[in-house]
Backbone:
């Protein structure tokens, strides 16, 4: 797919960037707060780079950045990061070679200060040396182990189709038909018992009636339980967005788009401008061509955001917080949302019912020793020390109490 | 043990020999069948209806698809907004009456809650009930949505061109243009008005306050050569003597005064306590908190003050003026004031400059200036001079005014001679109103310029000299409205917007006065961020005092019944009357909602054969119900202003009676009382929605109190029983143990003034429903916390205690055991949880709760036309807190200790990998309390503020003898009644009950 990216001369939609910058400025002026850039932290800054680059995880849209500070001069890097097209147009041989090598996809300019770029480079240097590679596109959480160093990810599909997806509601569950047939048998046996009397032995009627009542009752209970729940819900979205391509094949980190998952109760739906970080370059999709991607541009032009349909819904009386689960509890996205990286169209894999929540809260361990917050739970610490308890579950911390989710 | 009672009716039951207690109207109400309850007999038609409904409902329930829910992200997400996380913006509240530095909590761009700004040295994070409720005014459907010409919709372009051309025409002809505004404390706006007057030189600017402080302003002009309200330092005063000044409730700057006052009343860190004597003509909130309350008629105030002055002057060698004898003996008061020279403070709420001159003279003689009163930092919160308004109305009627522009004033409603103002309005060529919402004035003028809400506007303020406050918009304009300042700029032909004007003003006038920031942008950003910029305090300037001759004849001294006009905590001047939260806020004293009424003294009620809810005819033209009010001086009645609105919105219209026409005018100033009123019994009754007998605790030892003398001797005094009860509280069961966190609260009854701020704060925070007067009468009020008010001693001059009561979060909770579906279990952090979706509405828990804090949703209060308040329209619903469920019919609800705040702050600590710090978490009731009476925290942490208070000898728990182990703790009320007082002659000669008897009864056994 990546080779297919069209290599037009100047695909970067600069006018939109200006609009964006202008709007951001406007917000600043309007609210006149001391502008605090969210991207101050180099790790956060790198999330923007991570859409196209890795550190030690091989090529992506752009080159692997491991050891970049040794390969290139700092001054050159600062200029290139700030506005790569300028250097290319000046005819800098290295820059031109890179541009040609990477399918003439320009790197968007970045409005960063020298210090910010330096801190970014420092971050790339240290992360590259550590070799841990917890930054970079290839660490998309859902994906399997990263490909070996230097291997271009486009060489083979990264995702292996091992686990079959529970993509549809069990088709055998034709409960309505069973219910109606049972109801018919139930009435027939009553009529026979009272009026026609074809079967002489009355215990047969009784057995049939009791069985029918049981079957119908069971169906009612099962159906009632799923009332208001949306397991296997998979509506058509206004844009045929494929998580399989984005999170699976391109291995974009979930939190690159759902970027408030670690700070807010909502994981966050990406603003259209975030799509533009990549789709200012990527204008044609593998399957849908330009049709679906052009909806992003249309949204920007008309100013009408994309009305996504929520798949995972909780009732109003349940409070759920992503930050608590993702950042504090270190729950991976897949645990609740299923193998999203294999889904073209998102489907709700789990019931999201209370039983399902509680089941996890009863067994899941909290980060009891890693988080300073839990130091005040002295009784629990004593119990662990004395060996009375071996692990601390969410339940032990009161995680199954009503008031944790319902208020 | 004292006897406490919650109403005069209950008092009669306890004490009244020979008086047959009338049946409580509420009991009567309770015995009547509820209107909504279906009749017991079921007809065939009912059966068929029910069956049809059931079948239909069953079909619907089984066939319905789940709704499709959309998630619409931003196109460009602003950097500062994270969906799901609140932003706080510093701003300024000033509505013409009251000032506070505030923080506005916004979620996804919409303001949902007001908190106090702790950086302000004036309000120090405190707010009032009205300020808390102001967020709902933003989402009021009754607001003006576009400009009007002759009450028809028009456009800003046409309104601008028409007004501009008319103004310039009038100006060139030399016609008089009058700009009539409420008090303006914004320095930039004052300059802007100056520019407007330069542009239209024939303009006169008149300030009109519906509640005037003209007397204080004029008296200070005479005594100190400057029209001003000095800065009263209640925190520095050891002795506070207030004459009819409700400074904790509605007088000038109540939040500031309450903060300062409560500093001297905490008795937690320091052991000194101020002494407060209130001399007043009705039972005010301030009077209910006084250590000693002396009752006078309003007309006697001047005479009493003159006698007091004479006594002090005689000691000090100042000139003495001839005066009739005082109605109340003043010798001991004078002695007390002289004894506390330099640390005492005398104030008066009178609007008569002659009275204020005496107050100034007394304060001068007892050395208050420079110590408890600062002249170098005057307050600017009231600037209107009554005489100017009187002249204006005369000029309008003489046809001398060519154009009248009113801004944030409503004289057609709140001017005592409103009819005269209206007739003058009709003789004025051009009439323009700049207002945010329709009112009685706006419907009579030609042009109505729809203004922004303050949460949509830029503003600045200088409430106190050198104390600057900035306000910023926190939401884009909801309607086609424009800020009043922008209108004036446009009409002056100035194309600048007010925001630019404001910034330029600050750059030119305020920025140069500081040196901390070198760049204006830095300075501006800092100021907008903080909301407050304060100049370093200047040295007290010794302003020269000029003695003025005092008059000894005071108008209005009458033998008949006198009427006092006052403001209620919720409604105030009536400006925000269309706010259902405020209408349903029970008055701190009468506990009445949704009405105004005539408070009458028990002795007069007995004489006129009146009981509460009887209707009387006042002055032969106003029918109004009465409430028999303990502590109301005999020979006086009192009535609240701010009711009887006719063009305010569907909530306020027709509620109560307008009392503004009863204001009297003498010598060019408005008196908020009138003499010789006539009362006639009509024989009718009118139901009042009072909550005072709701949820009572059946006369058990609830309030514990002592005197400061006793407390100095023994800090446990008044609370001796606590030790015994703790000893007796033996149990076979294991006491509950809480690992980690155990939430607890401590409420200082000595600091609490009962203002009701916490009730509205809780209502806003927790989406508490408004239910209307009829339901209030059925004892169904939904407030999660109430402020119980208990009287003790004789009903003629009782002592009062205010006690906030919310769910006590008992560790051995009686409600938890009786729930058949375990909908209200106990948490491992000591919270009594309430799972609404599990509750089936048996109400067993409500019956078993000894504190009466659980509330039942008798109806669906949201989306129900029968309850057409703030939960029945899409606009007002924007105020809902998204973190708290809106409860539906049939479930019980109650205080949750703001569990969503607890969870939020716990998560914050976890995300930052740290432990919780004491003070991280503040409950809604605690956060903006103007008296700092509530402390919340972790009882497991021995260093936390709440733990330290728990071991205080004053601390007890409500009904602790029944071993419910509540997590809420109360601290005894301490009255500063020196035992020597008994020997002193504070004898109250006017009322029937002798003062001797009142003071004798202060023993506490």
Residues:
């Amino acid at each position: 797919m990546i080779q297919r990216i069209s290599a037009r001369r100047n695909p970067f939609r600069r006018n939109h960037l200006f609009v964006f910058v202008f709007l951001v400025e406007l917000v600043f002026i309007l609210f006149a707060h001391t502008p605090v850039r969210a991207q101050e932290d180099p790790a956060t800054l790198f999330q923007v780079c991570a859409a196209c680059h890795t550190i030690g995880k091989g090529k992506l849209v752009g080159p692997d950045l491991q050891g970049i500070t040794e390969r290139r001069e700092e001054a050159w890097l600062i200029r290139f990061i700030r506005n790569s097209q300028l250097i290319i147009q000046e005819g800098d041989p290295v820059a031109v070679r890179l541009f040609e090598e990477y399918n003439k996809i320009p790197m968007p300019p970045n409005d960063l200060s020298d210090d910010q770029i330096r801190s970014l480079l420092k971050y790339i240097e240290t992360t590259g040396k550590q070799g841990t590679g917890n930054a970079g596109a290839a660490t998309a959480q859902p994906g399997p182990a990263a490909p070996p160093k230097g291997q271009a990810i486009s060489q083979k599909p990264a995702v292996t189709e091992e686990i079959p997806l529970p993509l549809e509601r069990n088709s055998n569950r034709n409960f309505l038909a069973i219910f109606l047939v049972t109801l018919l048998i139930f009435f027939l046996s009553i009529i026979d018992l009272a009026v026609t009397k074809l079967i002489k032995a009355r215990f047969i009627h009784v057995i049939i009636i009791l069985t029918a009542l049981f079957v119908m009752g069971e169906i009612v209970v099962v159906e009632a339980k799923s009332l208001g729940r949306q397991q296997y819900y998979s509506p058509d979205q206004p844009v045929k967005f494929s998580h399989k391509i984005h999170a699976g094949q391109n291995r974009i980190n979930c939190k690159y788009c759902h970027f408030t998952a670690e700070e807010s109760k909502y994981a966050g739906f990406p603003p259209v401008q975030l799509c533009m970080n990549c789709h200012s370059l990527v204008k044609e999709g593998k399957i849908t061509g330009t049709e679906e991607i052009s909806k992003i541009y249309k949204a920007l032009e008309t100013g009408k955001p994309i009305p996504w349909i929520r798949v995972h819904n909780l009732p109003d009386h349940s409070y759920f917080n992503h930050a608590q689960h993702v950042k504090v509890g270190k729950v991976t996205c897949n645990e609740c949302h299923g193998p999203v990286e294999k889904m073209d169209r998102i489907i709700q894999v789990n019931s999201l019912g209370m039983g399902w929540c509680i089941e996890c809260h009863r067994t899941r361990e909290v980060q009891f020793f890693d988080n300073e917050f839990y130091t005040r739970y002295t009784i629990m610490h004593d119990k662990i020390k004395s060996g009375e308890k071996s692990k601390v579950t969410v339940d032990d911390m009161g995680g199954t109490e009503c008031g944790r989710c319902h208020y | 043990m004292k006897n406490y009672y919650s109403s005069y009716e209950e008092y009669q039951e306890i004490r009244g020999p020979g008086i047959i207690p009338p049946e409580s109207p509420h009991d009567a109400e309770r015995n009547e069948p509820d209107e909504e309850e279906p009749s017991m007999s079921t007809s065939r038609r009912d059966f068929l209806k029910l069956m049809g409904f059931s079948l239909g409902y069953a079909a619907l329930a089984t066939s319905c698809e789940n709704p499709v829910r959309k998630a619409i992200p931003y196109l460009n997400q602003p950097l500062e907004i994270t969906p799901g996380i609140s932003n706080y913006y510093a701003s300024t509240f000033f509505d013409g009456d009251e000032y506070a530095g505030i923080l506005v909590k916004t979620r996804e761009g919409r303001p949902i809650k007001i908190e106090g700004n702790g950086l302000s040295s004036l309000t120090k994070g405190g707010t009032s009930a009205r300020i808390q409720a102001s967020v709902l005014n933003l989402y009021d459907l009754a607001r003006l949505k576009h400009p009007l010409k002759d009450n028809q919709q028009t456009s800003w372009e046409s309104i601008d061109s028409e007004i501009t051309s008319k103004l310039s025409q009038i100006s060139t002809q030399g016609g008089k243009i009058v700009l009539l505004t409420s008090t303006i404390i914004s320095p930039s706006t004052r300059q802007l008005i100056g520019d407007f007057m330069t542009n239209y030189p024939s303009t006169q600017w008149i300030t009109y306050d519906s509640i005037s402080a003209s007397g204080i302003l004029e008296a200070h002009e005479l005594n100190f050569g400057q029209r001003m309200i000095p800065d009263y330092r209640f925190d520095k005063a050891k002795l506070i003597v207030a004459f009819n000044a409700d400074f904790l409730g509605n007088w000038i700057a109540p939040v500031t005064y309450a903060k300062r006052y409560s500093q001297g009343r905490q008795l937690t860190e320091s052991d000194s306590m101020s002494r407060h004597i209130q001399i007043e003509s009705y039972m005010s909130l301030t009077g209910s908190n006084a250590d000693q309350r002396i009752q006078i008629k309003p007309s006697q105030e001047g005479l009493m003050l003159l006698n007091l002055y004479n006594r002090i002057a005689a000691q000090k060698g100042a000139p003495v003026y001839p005066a009739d004898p005082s109605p109340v003996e003043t010798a001991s008061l004078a002695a007390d004031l002289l004894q506390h020279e330099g640390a005492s403070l005398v104030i008066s709420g009178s609007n008569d400059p002659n009275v204020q001159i005496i107050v100034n003279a007394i304060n001068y003689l007892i050395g208050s200036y420079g110590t408890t009163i600062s002249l170098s930092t005057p307050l600017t919160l009231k600037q209107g001079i009554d005489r100017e308004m009187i002249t204006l109305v005369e000029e309008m009627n003489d046809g001398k005014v060519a154009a009248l522009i009113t801004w944030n004033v409503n004289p057609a409603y709140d001017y005592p001679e409103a009819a005269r103002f209206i007739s003058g309005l009709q003789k004025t060529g051009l009439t323009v109103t700049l207002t945010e919402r329709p009112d009685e004035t706006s419907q009579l003028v030609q042009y109505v310029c729809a203004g922004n809400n303050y949460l949509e506007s830029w503003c600045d303020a200088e409430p106190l000299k050198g104390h600057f406050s900035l306000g910023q918009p926190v939401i884009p304009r909801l309607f086609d409205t424009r800020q009043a300042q922008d209108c004036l700029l446009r009409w002056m032909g100035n194309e600048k917007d007010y925001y630019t004007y404001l910034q330029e003003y600050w750059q030119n006038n305020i920025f140069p006065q500081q040196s901390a920031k070198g760049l204006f942008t830095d300075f501006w950003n800092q100021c907008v961020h903080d909301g407050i910029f304060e100049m370093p305090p200047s040295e007290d300037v010794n302003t020269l005092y000029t003695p003025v001759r005092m008059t000894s004849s005071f108008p209005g001294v009458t033998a008949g019944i006198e009427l006092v006009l006052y403001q209620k905590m919720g409604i105030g001047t009536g400006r925000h009357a269309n706010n259902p939260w405020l209408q349903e806020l029970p008055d701190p004293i009468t506990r009445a909602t949704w009405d105004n009424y005539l408070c009458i003294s028990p002795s007069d009620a007995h004489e006129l054969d009146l009981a509460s809810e009887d209707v009387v005819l006042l002055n032969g033209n106003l029918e109004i119900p009465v409430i028999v009010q303990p502590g109301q001086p005999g020979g006086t009645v009192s009535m609240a202003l701010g009711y009887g609105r006719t063009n305010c919105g569907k909530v306020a219209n027709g509620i109560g009676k307008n009392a503004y026409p009863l204001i009297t005018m003498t010598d060019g100033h408005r008196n908020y009382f009138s003499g010789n009123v006539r009362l006639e019994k009509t024989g009718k009754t009118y139901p009042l929605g009072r909550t005072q007998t709701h949820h009572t605790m059946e006369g058990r030892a609830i309030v514990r109190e002592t005197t400061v003398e006793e407390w100095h001797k023994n800090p446990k005094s008044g609370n001796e029983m606590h030790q015994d009860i703790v000893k007796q509280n033996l149990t076979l069961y294991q006491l509950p143990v809480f690992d980690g966190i155990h939430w607890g609260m401590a409420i200082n009854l000595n600091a609490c003034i009962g203002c009701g701020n916490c009730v509205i704060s809780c209502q806003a925070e927790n989406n508490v429903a408004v239910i209307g007067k009829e339901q209030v009468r059925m004892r169904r009020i939904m407030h999660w916390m109430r402020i119980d008010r208990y009287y003790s001693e004789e009903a003629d001059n009782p002592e009062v205690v205010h006690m906030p009561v919310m769910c006590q979060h008992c560790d051995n909770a009686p409600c938890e055991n009786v729930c058949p579906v375990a909908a209200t279990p106990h948490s491992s952090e000591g919270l009594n949880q309430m799972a609404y979706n599990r509750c089936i509405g048996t109400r067993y828990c409500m019956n078993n709760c000894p504190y009466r804090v659980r509330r039942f949703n008798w109806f669906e209060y949201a989306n129900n036309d029968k309850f057409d308040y703030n939960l029945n329209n899409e606009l007002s619903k924007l105020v809902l807190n998204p973190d708290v469920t809106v409860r539906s019919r049939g479930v019980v609800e109650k205080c949750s200790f703001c569990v969503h705040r607890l969870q939020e702050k716990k998560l914050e600590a976890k995300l930052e990998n740290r432990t919780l710090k004491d003070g991280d978490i503040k409950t809604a009731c605690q956060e903006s309390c103007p008296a700092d009476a509530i402390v919340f925290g972790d009882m497991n942490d021995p260093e936390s503020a709440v733990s330290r208070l728990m071991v205080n000898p004053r601390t007890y728990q409500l009904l602790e003898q029944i071993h419910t182990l509540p997590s809420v703790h109360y601290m005894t009320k301490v009255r500063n009644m020196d035992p020597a007082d008994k020997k002193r002659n504070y004898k109250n000669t006017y009322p029937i009950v002798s003062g001797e008897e009142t003071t004798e009864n202060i023993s506490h056994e």
Remarks:
- The domain at 37-154 of chain A is CATH 1.10.760.10 (Cytochrome Bc1 Complex; Chain D, domain 2).
- Chain A touches chain B through 68 residues (CB under 8 Å).
- The CA atoms of residues 117 and 142 of chain A lie 30 Å apart.
